[in-house]
Queue: 2 jobs
Job 1
Amino acid sequence: MSDIRTIPLAACKLAPENARQARGDVAGLMASIASESLLDPLHVYLEGKVAMVWDGGRRLKALKALHKARKLPADLAEGVPVLVSEKDAACRQSVVTFVREGLHPAREFKAYKAMLDKGESPERIGAAMGVDTRRVAQILKLANLAPEILDAFEAGDFSLGAAQAFTLTDDHERQRQVLAACQGWVQAPRVRQLLQQGMTSPRERLARFVGREAYEAAGGGFLVDLFTEGEEAEAWTDSGLVERLATEKMAKVVEDLKAEGWGWVEVLEPYDFGWGHGYERVSGSPVELDAEEQAAYDAAAEVLEHEGAGVGELDAAAETLARLEAKMEAGGLTAEEKAEAGVFIQLDAGGLLTIRRGYRKRPEATGEAAGKKAQAAAPHGWGHTGHWHMTHIATAATRHALLKDPAAAYDVLVASLAWEMSHAMPRGGALKLQARGVRVSDIPAEARLAGEADWTSVFAAWRERLPTESFEDCFDFVVGLPAEEKAELLALGVGLGLDAVELRHDQRRSEAWRQLGVFMRRTGVDLAGAWRPDATFLARGTRDALVEALSAEGVTGPQKARKSELVSLLAAKVAVSRWLPGVLARQVAR
């Protein structure tokens, strides 16, 4: 219900809901009112004797300026025409003003904030504006950004997505620090990365293994992104707690397995694909499940086949299947047989724990067969996991160097294409013409290089910009890029296409590894400067490999020391030297 009436100018005040907030020059409007009077009434709602102008802020500013200059038209001296509405109706109508005027979103944020500051609840604001409470919460979160962040957003320095990323913290000083750290390159993935340092994604392997309920029960905190849906909307703020809980849970698994009577339990690395080498499965007499166990087995199998099952359900189902299958396969072993055998447990990259019971060492080969086996194993003192680790380090270091050197990336691309064209059959080289991106969270912490998060952020930023509807749109977009951005995109694509990683030391990719050496020399990769072997890596080495490494570093006579002592001694030496193990040293020496 609205009505038009006349109200003294002194009783009119700008309402917080006013979208424009009366910005800009009003000289032209003053001239129009002075000659033609006020053609449109001010839109107001009443608060006591005060008329709150929610639409017409510039007219109000012009009227007050004319009054101050004593040039107000005579017909307005006693009062100005206003259209009075109910407050809720006025708020809803102000949404139309946002759309009609094409105002910057920052003005909308501030208008909502002004209503909150006047004592309106988010529910009432949502009802008045015709939006749900989640949308109100999002807008108020944006309105609470540091003034410098809002001003930079309104000035067009970065996108709405980047502004939303800043809301991950309410600490204005931290927001300012991140803005400065971005150094003019303010992209949503980069802002999120900086604000979530020291946090854990619930999708990471240790978080999945621990489980949300256990983490929360231990006092773990959460950071919720109001602008993201699903599991990605949450981060766990205490990564140290996640690691401690995972260690404790794994220790409990080991304890329970030993209580079953197994002679040993070995915890494998996530990417240890050669775990069964040299072992054989011990089989006992088959054991049948009772009716209750069979029902539990069938229910667990059904959960694993159900696409909509949650992470917790999948983990519980997998554990049930592993336990019951172990009973069926190894339940018939005698206590002596179990004491001579053991268990491998492995937490994979997805956080799923696999338990493999009933393994024992194969009998040692003798004679000529033993000599061949020793000769084949001699060059590989760091195992399959160590070999994967080293080849990953070399690949990642070269990828990072390519991102920084577009000219080298161009040479790598053209040379690789030329090499493939010069041969009738594919050569199996190091460069694949695809750029899918690599999730750093899937790489064990000890195998990550310091710069890996940088290029994944660059990749995420380009993914936000690149058109995905059609190749034609993408082509036109790339053609229109400035030269320096084309060069960055080329370097990123070549770097992401690089893959010379080898999963096993006995399954080499000689052509890819040879090409990687060429790329490393072209980009000037310094492997010794990019990565230092730590105790975690060195512990994977055999005693012979550790002694040989210490000898290379000038340390003699430690042959009788325990392996843990050899690891500590070598770790201290290589931390300040440029020593590299195995395949990396040979690559550098090429």
Job 2
Amino acid sequence: MAVSNVVKVFMRKFLRFRSVVMLITLILVCSFVKETFKRNKPERSQEPELEKFEKFRPTEPRLKTKPKISPRPDLLWNQTPLDSIVNLVAHVDFVKCREPNPETDIILKLPKQDCALFCVGRGFSEVNVKLKTSECFCSNENSSMREANFDGCSTANHISSLFLSYRLTVRHYPQLQGTNNFLGCLKTNINNLQNKGIESISEKETKTACYEDCSKKQLSISISVVTLAKATMCYCAPNFLDFLYFIDMDQNISESSEKCKHGEVSATQWALENCRESVFLNPQAPVLPQIGLVTIPGSGNTWTRLLFQKLTGILSGSIYRSGDLVRKGLPGETETLTSGKTTMFKMHEGLQINDNENTKYYKTMAKFVHVFRNPLRSTLAEFNRRKYGHTISFRSEADFRKVAGSPPSKRYFSANFAQTYEQQTSRGLSILSAIFDDGKPVLVISYEDLQQNLLSQLLRILLFFDVGDVTSYWNRAICTYYNDAKAKEFKRNYKVDLEKVAAEFLNKQTFHDDLILFEKNFTRKGVHFLRMDEYMKSFQN
């Protein structure tokens, strides 16, 4: 009996010991398998793969993602690669934390980079952002806003009512001058810029010979430096971006030969022509999404499409397939909506007309771009087009008054000016309803912003097309900015300014109420606000 009890005790202890050994063995095996899997797992690339054009291949990769940094207020702006795109048009400095004035400041729901470019385009000196909620607003240094220390809005910036405020110091780009596209004088000795990508150094007889040689080599910048021995040293560089910040923009072309101490900088003819040619999208491997350009007539559609083609190298399409526009540089007009070979596809209608083609258009597009112009100006442009076509305008105020004040007509092309304005307004509101109610991303650009600060709006388009971190597109943006002269050839040449005369045919209060209605549509989505005071100037006595 005693022996039996001893055996039972021994067996229980042995089984417990065996269970512990098995458990330890299982843990060791699992740990070994886990480590082996980690070692054999392939590393995922940290740099996103970029689909490329067949002909216009971006020569530079996307900007690599930077590591996270400490939350210092002056560094928060440079937290992502896309922040660098803003530096092309403005220098960004942290100021302090501020609370918006609900009576004057309009809150936008835009990514901080897009918001900064928007504020630059409007001439504001500051951008105020909530980094975690994509809320922002524009302001000027003298704005009446409550200020706070950085600690007051850094820890809970996503729920606080305070915004991080950054000062925007605008960069002014030199203008092209003379036959050699002179940009200005070099500010510093050329030897200080050897790390800026200079690819060719030679001695030439003249500065013109240097300019022509760099253009033949398909390089964007030529720099002519006259040595003490009166020889002309020629330096060529591949892109604008490395040198534009080292140019003295106050230098006059007539004084360039005598007063350029460190050298003359010019943009080569090749650089200016490099963004003029565009190709069709490959429907099987598109590099850009299908985006609809939806505006009312007279809003600068042709100009916007030409700018887009130079900016991206991809042709713009249209549902209207106008042979006249094909001859003016828009061969994408020949393509159908379903071909997939074009993007920035033009459309002038909302969904106020129950048309299968319109419905199909809105379902096909992945995003929308809307260009908004002063309604008085856009109506004037459309009224002029109906009477004279795309390039001719009214010869005098009397000529305009006679047609604008004609009796109302049921025929579309015979409508008087007030009728045309009503048609334009109804169409514009229908378009906003169609693009906003769809729920797809929308970029709203002001025609006046394009006129006054073209480069910032081009960069906004790159961000919207998800290629804002591809630096080769930045050079295309600079090229498009300098090459805008050709696009301006297609703008209507007005012989007289008819804006104030046209305003006489509209009711001031009705026009103001319509502007408020448009603005409510934009601010409801947080994508835009109007130049209200500027648009109302034509109605002032």
